[in-house]
Amino acid sequence: MLIQPVNTSETSFSGKEHFIRRRRSTKSSHSLKSHIPDEHCKVVAEKKRQKKMKSTSDWRERRNAIRLTNEYTVETLVVADADMVQYHGAEAAQRFILTVMNMVYNMFQHQSLGIKVSIRVTKLVLLRSRPAKLSIGHHGERSLESFCHWQNEEYGGAKYLGNNQVPGARDDTPPVDAAVFVTRTDFCVHKDEPCDTVGIAYLGGVCSAKRKCVLAEDNGLNLAFTIAHELGHNMGMSHDDDHPPCAGRSHIMSGEWVKGRNPSDLSWSSCSRDDLENFLKSKVSTCLLVTDPRSQYAVRLPHKLPGMHYSADEQCQILFGTNATFCKNMEHLMCAGLWCLVEGDTSCKTKLDPPLDGTECGADKWCRAGECVSKTPIPEHVDGDWSMWSQWSMCSRTCGTGVRFRQRKCDNPPPGPGGKNCRGASVEHTVCENLPCPKGVPSFRDQQCQAHDRYTNKKKSLLTAVVVDDKPCELFCSPLGKDSPVLVTDRVLDGTPCGPYETDLCVHGKCQKIGCDGIIGSAAKEDRCGICSGDGKTCKVVKGDFNHTKGMGYIEAAVIPAGARRIRVVEDKPAHSFLALKDSSKRSINSDWKIELPGEFQIAGTTVRYVRRGLWEKISAKGPTKIPLHLMVLLFHDQNYGIHYEYTIPVNYTAENRSEPEKQQDSLYIWTHSGWEGCSVQCGGGERKTIVSCTRIINKTMTVVNDSDCQRVNRPEPQVRKCNTHPCQSRWVTGHWSPCSATCEKGIQHREVTCVYQLQNGTYVNTRDLYCLGNKPATVQSCEGRDCLSIWEASEWSKLFTFAHVSVSSLLQCSSTCGKGLQSRVVQCMHKVTGRHGSECPVLSKPAAYRQCHQEVCNEKINVNTITSPRLAALTYKCTGDQWTVYCRVIREKNLCQDMRWYQRCCQTCRDFYANKMQQKS
Prior knowledge:
Number of strands: 44
CATH architecture of the largest domain: 3-Layer(aba) Sandwich
CATH class of the largest domain: Alpha Beta
Structural class: alpha+beta
GO molecular function: metal ion binding; metalloendopeptidase activity
Domain PLAC: 875-914
CATH superfamily of the largest domain: Collagenase (Catalytic Domain)
Low-confidence stretches: 1-67, 157-171, 655-666, 800-812
CATH topology of the largest domain: Collagenase (Catalytic Domain)
Active site: 230
Strand order of the largest sheet: 1-2-6-7-5-3-4
Strand content: 25-35%
Binding site for Ca(2+) 1: 75, 177, 287
Distance between the termini: 108 Å
Number of helices: 16
Keywords: Calcium, Cleavage on pair of basic residues, Disulfide bond, Extracellular matrix, Glycoprotein, Hydrolase, Metal-binding, Metalloprotease, Protease, Repeat, Secreted, Signal, Zinc, Zymogen
Shape: extended
Helix content: 10-25%
């Protein structure tokens, strides 16, 4: 049996058909490999659509990658054709298919796959007659397409399929990720005639409504291999022969079925595992991540070994017909290959396939993986259960609101064959609170943009984050001065706000709702009165409109009182006027004839958001305000189309409500827990207490009032809850880089890097470097200033002094005709533009102005210039001071004072030199 793709020209996950080619049964000594005809490699009709999908598949796969989870479930529909049900009988066909699907389940549970994929049969349909809309014939491609359309139409309704038997079915139809159709009709890929093909499927079609289908021919118990192989194609696996590292080996996705191998003995290749991982990372596989609750009514697969359901005689009957029996004289070799004798024949025959695992091969023995071994008890099906939760991870942020997570595994125990998987999530997240981030620090999203390797090496702080509305948890960054954002990564760090004005957070690349109770995924919301999960009855809404158009300048529209919440001010139409807001502490927006840019402002104890789009404006604030706010309109040219404002205030705000004695008498005052305080520590385990407030109940309405109203009632102790239990941690803290050591060209910068440990109160203390994880950040880096406008210019090397007895040519080379001499040149800093003397030349790169030169060794006898006695030289030459002050220091450093010519011109420096030398000798 050979397995080949119909179309090898495309590599997209969707739309490509594969088929399995079958070799007819032969004697065991015959070869089972043959050349594949050319007509088996034609392109299917969906080529045009494949090309369109292929052009974007790489981009989509990279953008929409998702992390692999612990387990994937393929909720599978299995349909048996009427000819198969008639051949086996209804009861036998059901037993046969369930046994085959159990073998398929075990193949996908093989550890070589590396990923837990559970094949769950959610519905088994045994057709008594072939439906009119289902056309199954010798043309495999058309038959597969017909079945895909039929299952999509029929499976959508919650009903029984006519007069067909549906074992284990319910009125509430379970979901379908993949659909398998088993028939005894001999089909070919794209020819309307029988051939050796036994299976065909769409590559990467799982989860797709009209491509999640497999067509398999009932060829005995090898049907399990056919279905497993085709489901592999349906989940994006190509043939091993398409991957050079895996070609020529015997695996489930091999291009040829190897005779003599038990399906349970086959494994998945590393190439198949890679193909599956790539497919599961794409969005087309998302249905495998969701298990419908209705699938709990799935058809239960037998947990026993398949050979325990079918004796050797029954297996022979499946292979060779009802008149076949097992050859008793071949019992000693039965686990290597199943030999059968058909009534009327004189010799036994085989298809080279070993019997099923669990087939008895002797007393208390059975066949396992082609060998006869002693029986071991098969455990009953075991439902999976969770392990203990791991410790909470560290907070994803060091300031502000972040996210922590913990994990558990479904291995206590793991689910056995036929057992149920663990229910619930394997990962749990929770919100963690830190100290507020310092003012002026870039947002968490901006920090991620600035940390991206592509830009941080040379251009720091040149990227700003951009939130794309339909992709809030992907990191888009915009270079400074450019409008088009660039996708940096398909997932922001956990704990990143979904938007600049939202409390929802991104977790694992998805925007998660954060309830007002601080729980991820919680539906708890503050009502309009600011009460978490409240009913909105403790406050009232104040609305108003302002349509004044007379005058020019600032005109007050309304005064919003202290304690107001849900403030909203909006212009009815775009106008040339401006909204303005001001409190008594002189904090304001657009006041004093200064128009602000849109953004957030801290006014009256709350954050006010100011939006301006063209000429249209809007002001909003969550509240509560601590002092009154004055809403104003700045008019120009008497143009104002009107503004609408609204806010909420407590129902007991007005003096009228507070002074009605009859209501005071009917009121009930009690202490209630109205919220939670902040955590007492930032890490290491602390406590948070409830806020105990005095509450008045009147007419079933609760209102928080002053504590003095509850003096007659005993105040309860606050409730206590543990918080911030994650351990305190050490981290590296870096200081600011020092200014560049050079104002122009290259220099160096320094900064301070220390290891700090976080105390429970949130402060940090210095500690030893070994307590900080990771490599210590760099303390020194190179830097570049602006281009230097001044450069060093040096003249040619020339003579220093003129002596009558020295030739000109010698003077140009060295100052001495023998021994050591000196050459000099003029070095000066010159401005590049003006050509005048400059002042910004780099000191370290200044060229040398002097250099030593060497001539032939002087003849001591005739060198009258050599000073043999410093005392004698001092007596014979009267020193009146150095004549060449600029050069005398160099003369002394080069040890040239012994030459009388140099001594005469630098007598003061040389005399001090000899004096020091004599003191050292004494």
